[in-house]
């Protein structure tokens, strides 16, 4: 069985486990196996028959462009990598905390 590494944000669905074993010869089959044991996991990884846009998969250390069709061996390691959304406008520094303090100030 493949060893699957579960992202931190999805661990509540696996009872907190960060690593689980799953059967399957493709990433899709591995996800189906995980879904049978941990209902709800598929919905967090797959949307409209494809990996969600914020999810990548690496099999045996290689990020796969094949997504759900990527081949998985019985001794493979599968990592689901979730992008963290966020970012926004930078907050200005009103007190100049990032000013170069090495410059001398005239007296």
Q: Strand tally, please?
A: 7
| CATH uppermost class | Alpha Beta
CATH superfamily: Beta-grasp domain
- Average pLDDT, to the nearest integer? 86
String of helices and strands? EEHHEEEEE
Instruction: Identify the strand order in the major beta sheet.
Output: 2-1-7-5-6
Tell me which CATH architecture applies here: Roll
Major beta sheet summary: 5 strands, mixed
The residue ranges in which pLDDT falls below 50 over 5 or more consecutive positions are: 96-101
What would the CATH topology be? Ubiquitin-like (UB roll)
**Per the principal axes of the C-alpha atoms, what is the gross shape?**
globular
* Quaternary assembly: single chain
Please estimate the helix content. Answer: 10-25%
Strand content: 15-25%
Distance between the termini: 72 Å
Class of secondary structure makeup: alpha+beta
What gyration radius follows from the Cα positions, in whole Å?
A: 21 Å
Short summary:
With 107 residues, this protein is an alpha+beta fold. Helix content is 15%, strand content 23%. The protein has one domain (2-82): Ubiquitin-like (UB roll).
